[in-house]
Description:
By secondary structure, the protein is an alpha+beta fold. It is 42% helix and 8% strand. The protein has helices spanning 49-53, 56-65, 85-91, 106-112, 119-123, 134-140, 148-167, 177-182, 185-194, 198-203, 222-246, 251-260, 266-279, 282-297, 299-307, 312-322, 355-359, 393-410, and strands at 44-45, 68-72, 78-82, 97-98, 173-176, 332-334, 338-340, 343-345, 350-353, 415-416, 438-441. Helix 12 runs antiparallel to helix 13 (266-279). The radius of gyration is 21 Å and the shape is globular.
Amino acid sequence: MKETAMVASSETKAGSETGNETGNETGNETGSRSLPERIEPVPIELYGADYKRDPYPLYAELRERGPVHRVRFPSGVCAWLVTGYEAAHQALTDARLGKHHSRGNAAWRARASIMPEPQHSQLQVHLLHQDPPKHTSMRRLITDAFAPQRVEALRPHFQVMADALLDALPATGRADLVDAFAARFPFQVLAEVIGLPREFEDRFDRDWGKVVQPVGPQDPGRAAYEARLRGLQQYIADLVAHKRGERGENLLSRLVDARDDGRLSQEELDSMIFQLLVAGQEPVTNQITTALITLLRHPAHLAALADRPELLPRAIEELLRHDSAFELTTWRFFAEDADLHGTRIPAGDSVIVSLCAANRDPRQFADADTLDFDRTPNPHLAFGHGSHFCPGAALARAELQIAVGTLLRRLPDLRLDVPESELAWIPAVLARGVDRLPVTYGPGAAMSPRSGRSGGCPVV
């Protein structure tokens, strides 16, 4: 989950998601230098089944060409993509780059605002679209709920949740691990952490998460998209009314209190709840799937991790680096024409950072395309960097350690039940993952310790 993971999809969400604003000034300042003459290169298309299946060859080619590239997304909106670790690190802390949508120019606004009104104004003013000082005050409202100490205290409870989901599977056979586990476990954890009442947990429709996948005005699926938006917005309104009557010591109640005492507007409250519900669990779902697919491609690593659960913390960091579920950040904008690593960027054009391209940069990571559980240090950017660094990073790490460790422990001989070429990668612009992950496993899957049968070492 992030602010870098706390929202899914950028253009995939009408321009909403990760990144950062505040931070150190970088060496990209224009000073008194004249800007390079504006050149409009032919945009590189960042979409299509082949690209979503494996974007890394393209990212390698782009890194070799330079750090900044003109790209086009499925909606037709063009942006400037930053590749390479050092360039990404600098962009994520470049004080000249802001996140608020008011910075976008007319060309960006014409195609990027996929979410219609009134929902765009009412659901898109969350943390990922704010600049300081508003961003600072809004972020302060949520950090305690995701503090590492609190996450560690709740870890045993999360383990019980994971085991209960796998208890429902047959001892041997086949399953879709998205439907049976990856789509359920992160949402159950999120509900616990933010104080989502059980009746609202049961009522939440995962299909609402598709509101962050781009559906243009002329798309045949536009009506269904807008229906999802209205359904989710009504759910949020009902949840706010419930929490206002219930009160309590939990994050959702504290956010409602902040609205009532004037620290948040109604639109900011609704947007933050929208961000929590959609970005607080879908990225973890996707990261579970990308991690499992990576391990299934590397059976020796899978076997080592199953035999030695003490490797999990380091292995999860490497799996995050090797194939991050948060592929790209959301939009950033210069307030005036600016130079970015030798490329002239017009004011209001969108700048997007490729986290996945940065994490495979061989100038930062030796043998960058190799999965290496012994890699240290491992300063990957999977959770972003700077002021928009994912506030839920500690929670996401715990969830991933528990999820991967429990699946490998409980489902021996895990393997894909379909050719890998048949896996359908989600079309979300910023995110990587699959909607279905059919596997076979067993025999001999161990039940959880609380169900009376041994299950090996608990996840550390």
